[in-house]
Amino acid sequence: MAKLYIALVGLPARGKSLMAERLLEGLSADGLRVKVFNNGDLRRAELGARSAAPEFYSPENELGRQRRELIAEKNMQLAREFLDQGGQVAILDATNGSRARRQRLEELLNDAPLLYIECINNDPELLETSIRRKAKLSEFSHLSLDEAIRSFRQRIEYYEQIFVPLGEERCFVRVETLDNRIVDECACSDVPFYLQIRDILISDWIRNLFLVRHSESEFNIQRRIGGNAPLTPRGQKQAQALADHFREISIPFIFTSTRLRSAMTAAPLLKDHPDSIMIALPEFDEISAGVCDGMSYEEIRRAMPEEYAARSDNKYTYVYPDGEGYVTLRDRVSRGFRKALFISGAAPGTIIIGHQAINRMILSLFMYRRSGAVPYIYVPQNEYFHIVATHRKKLLELVSFTPDASF
Ligand code: F6P
After folding, report:
1. What CATH number did the domain enclosing 214 receive?
2. Can you list the alpha helix ranges (DSSP code H) found in 54-212?
3. In angstroms, what is the span from residue 86 Cα to ligand 1's centroid?
4. pLDDT of residue 404 exceeding 80
């Protein structure tokens, strides 16, 4: 029976544990016996908060280094036992950043092929978000959030001093975790399950995404575009119906735009899910209509007939004067979307409360429409799109959340 060790590599907060979880879930779904061996978990269990202080990670701290190596070797032994006892893929989730550590992996795990997977994420904003999330780990509970962030940053700096990217190893893949892109790889014919693993690395990993358009706003009923109008009373009822619908559904992350109508739609949801994390991303703000912001379509037609005609002619490539067009929206929305996926990680459910044009752009990532059709994708306010996308399952369904159609 084919067996494999996978050793993750990467500085802290680069998405390694999320990758480990994806590999575990993906390969298990393919019928393989897989287990993750996480050095951080073992360290916390064995050494507790003592090992949270940044000095523990200083390359100058010989005792700390020895303790970390012991933890790593213990996990290597456990991984080996797992494969001995019928396991097929053992995933070693740790920074594994120095050549010395990797040499040790190669010495101790010599009974099956070893594939390294390096997780890369050099996006400062995402790194910051990731660090903030790590700072909430229980090992920092004796510190304030600011102290925890400082401590974790210092830890990263120590790791950076000894970190060597993959390059000389026999079999490896280097992946950008923000956009699931393989940037470098050295494949070996004796590595089993390689194509499956590659497929998992480059596939989206969306457990349940609920793509909602904000509820009816004052501007919607006046047919005005842009602006920052609040919800109408009917819109508020829609938002409440949305919250009622999601009462029993797990949604640890709620992403909105920075616009009032998006935040007001999220408010009743948050009341029911007080532990959910709400994040307002400017990348999800509605298309900017530039000089036309706040006007109705009819006013534009009368005051700027050429602009109106140009837009009607090709809605996808048209760009509002001093504003945006679908064609220019793509990058920012994709970026916001990648960011939301990275932040929400392996969450069982994530809601995005976007806008008409924004949701069309997000949907276009899944619907594969020709660009000219994207500005016409149907985005209702009383239904949402439920999206699942893993390497084995793809789903896109429109779900109604309002009890009666008059909403
Ligand atoms: O009308 C609501 C709205 O969200 C406007 O703010 C925005 O300009 C418009 O939809 C985008 O849709 P379309 O591209 O069809 O005008």
Report:
1. 3.40.50.1240
2. 62-84, 99-108, 124-134, 145-162, 194-202
3. 57
4. no
